[in-house]
Amino acid sequence: MSDAPLFFLADVRVELDGRLVLSIGSLSIAAGKVTVLVGENGSGKTTFLRLLNGLLQPSRGAILFNGAPLHGEGARRVRAETVMVHQSPLLFRGSIGHNVGYGLRIRGVPAHEVSQRTKDALAEVGLPGFEGRRAGRLSGGEVQRVAMARAVVLRPKVLMLDEPTANVDPASRLVVETIVRQTVSAGGSVIMSTHTMELAYRLCDSMLRMSEGQVLPFAENIFRGSVERTDEHFTHFRSGQTVLLCPARQGDFSVAVLPLDDVIISRVPLSSSARNQLRGRVSRVQPEGALLRITVDCGLPIQAVITPPAAEELGMETGREYVVAFKASAVRLY
Amino acid sequence: MGVLGRAIGLLVSGDPEVWFITWTSLRFSLFSSIIACAAAIPLGVLIALKRFPGRRALLAVLSSLMALPTVVVGLLVYALISRSGPLGKMGLLFTPGAVIIGQAILAFPVVLSLTASALSSLNPLLPEVLTTLGATRRGIFWMSVREARGAVLSAALASFGRVIGEVGAAMMLGGNIRWYTRTLTTAIALQTGMGDFELGLALGIILMIMALGVNALLHWVVRHE
Prior knowledge:
The complex is a heterodimer of chains A (about 325) and B (about 220).
Chain A: E1 7-16, E2 19-29, E3 34-39, H1 45-52, E4 60-65, E5 68-69, H2 73-81, E6 82-85, H3 96-106, H4 111-124, H5 140-152, E7 158-162, H6 170-185, E8 189-193, H7 197-203, E9 206-211, E10 214-216, E11 220-224, E12 226-230, E13 234-239, E14 242-247, E15 255-259, E16 264-266, E17 276-288, E18 291-297, E19 301-306, H8 308-314, E20 321-326, E21 332-333
Chain B: H1 2-13, H2 16-49, H3 55-65, H4 70-81, H5 96-120, H6 126-132, H7 137-147, H8 149-164, H9 168-174, H10 184-193, H11 197-224
Helix pairs in contact in B: 1-11, 2-5, 2-8, 3-5, 4-5, 4-9, 5-8, 5-9, 6-7, 8-11, 10-11
């Protein structure tokens, strides 16, 4: 995988019927990763996905796909290498096999190979032997899975999923998760929108929060790891060499989420109610609007936002040692 | 009873003129419907899938053109192809070609309007889903027709039903020439006028069977789609 971003957007605006529905200053989406879009209904997630899939032209701005402009040369490649699965998937009339094999047939894939790959794709989404069934007689979850099969059968380099877990049963949700992981482990990239935060945190390599057509700077630390033990007060969550104290909860969690706002940086350990105090060195200081985003390497990188006066008072500079503190109750487990 | 008996006798005896007239009617209607479909189905798809100003008004106009009076079409085409008309040199008047042109014009708005309204009711997401799966414009066209195939087939059948039973254009443009352009409808009109009820009734029975047959087929298609 090259270092060039999968998608790069610069000053992109989308207007529909004279109304500004999407406005993105500058944004990169990495290749080979799972990028999750979260946000309210109507925040622009679907528009964003349609834009990246070339289904919608921006009113202004440039989008690069693997370094090539999406309007010119990139348009053909985006079509050949990406597939989007819509939120309420539309199945064609006829059999499930006809649906799943459609993209292969129009690409001129020989009939026997279409048939084999269709079978395989249906098995992958947990619907083995469904080829001959009629599209009109499936449940919501099954329709979603057939749509997923219709997309993954093409072995796309980029899979775009718009709310794949809305209105589906838990089994179908699990299928979505499996497909996402498989796509990425095969070297592909996934860009998906969802309202299911648990799924979002579990799957994402990076998360974009959208609001009113804009991508907001992401304001949470996401730590991957596992539960070490749970006692009567805390759940001990291990991420790398570091153990975080979290609210006591039973369950098999794999992600701990800590909002940037809940992190306090100090020169010396505090005598406070914060149950987590970790030492580390500042690895990065970057401006973010009127604030500074500080990354402290405490065995795992923990980010916080502070004001410039606070940074001045703390003598903030990279390489210097600080204490990072946060309450156990500020950490959410997924 | 005597007239009906003799009419049925004509039918079962295999009277060559009866069957020639039937074959002529079928031929004209089939050709004109096919021509109308070839032109109107692609255009109907285009109107249904494209969003442009005045689209609704256009659909309304097309829909009202379905009721185009057959004699008016006959009159207009007559003016075009008569000896002194702009296309007079082609010598089309009172030929099968003239009838087929007139009937195709009658069938065209039927197919166009029914196709456009059938495809307008398809899920608006269809072109986008097809595009993301890699379909070209042509692919989107075919899949749209396929998705609405019952309605498109109904449109084709309706156009056939419209022309097989019309008399105005066939009479004015074909001239009701025996063994040449005489169709079921023009023959019935002529024979009845001449008092030859047996032949008129025999042809009427055939025409009715055809019209009802097309209608039954239409219902069957609609029910099964």
